[in-house]
Amino acid sequence: MTITIPDRPATIDLNADLGEGCPHDAELLDGLVSSASICCGAHAGGPDVICATLARARDRGVIVGAHPGFPDREHFGRREQLISAEAVSALILDQTATLIDLAGEAGLAIRFLKPHGALYNQAQRDEEIARGVIAAAETLGLPLLGLPDSILHRLASARGVRYIPEGFPDRRYRDDGSLVPRSEPDAVLHDPREMEVQLLAMIASGRAATLCIHGDDPRAVENARLVRRVLLAQAMVVRSFAAREDAG
């Protein structure tokens, strides 16, 4: 199905959360994604996995960003925590510093910041956590990825932090634009047709500058190929927002 969308952008970024020790990183980096949020080693992964992922991203010309999360490997960083803005900023800066060092050794620069899991979701609606994330982004001088029209989006814009609105073709949304928590049934979309309909709606709205594929999903590669097929049918080009900036 092809729809006509006036004045939509001709390009869009396709990102994946990688470096977490999941089996599909290499396939996703081989021509499917244009940017990758690289795990910083706290919620999953480790130096060897992270370094291998960075090297492959470099060799494939994929833009990389930092993907810090709560240091809770038992729950993959998806358990919410009660934490201050100062502690949020500190954990992000600490984790990202490690990733920046590893990326530098691979000849790469970290180009954006995207919190992981519970840290990401809490920052969209909790002002205290949002302030900590934004403070870290300011210190790092990095653009910030998150949901459009969220508390995080509004506070980042007020602080002058560049914000990249993100959409999730493989996640179910509430009516208010927030993601359905993974603790609830059907939070993750499995039906390719349902994903396609949701993706077309995202394209039509023009609200997302980047689309995310979860690298830990067993269907990650199939999902990425589906997204690319739909984008191609809509005459859209997959290209990182950071690469577009580099080209002027």
Main features:
248 residues, alpha/beta, TIM Barrel, 9 helices, globular, disordered N terminus
Name the CATH architecture: Alpha-Beta Barrel
Assembly state here? single chain
Q: How much helical structure, as a percent, in the residues?
A: 40-55%
Largest sheet: 8 strands, parallel
List the helices and strands and how they pair.
Layout lengths: L10 E8 L6 H5 L5 E5 L7 H14 L2 E5 L17 H21 L4 E4 L3 H9 L1 H14 L3 E3 L4 H9 L3 E5 L24 H14 L4 E4 L6 H14 L3 E2 L2 H6 L2
Parallel strand pairs: 1-2, 1-7, 1-8, 2-3, 3-4, 5-6, 6-7
Task: Provide a descriptive summary of the structure in words.
This protein is of the alpha/beta class and 248 residues long. 43% of the residues lie in helices and 15% in strands. It has a single domain, classed as Alpha-Beta Barrel (TIM Barrel). The chain is built from nine helices and eight strands. Strands 1, 2, 3, 4, 5, 6, 7 and 8 form an eight-stranded parallel sheet that branches. Helix 7 (192-205) crosses helix 8. The longest helix has 21 residues, at 85-105. The two termini are 33 Å apart.
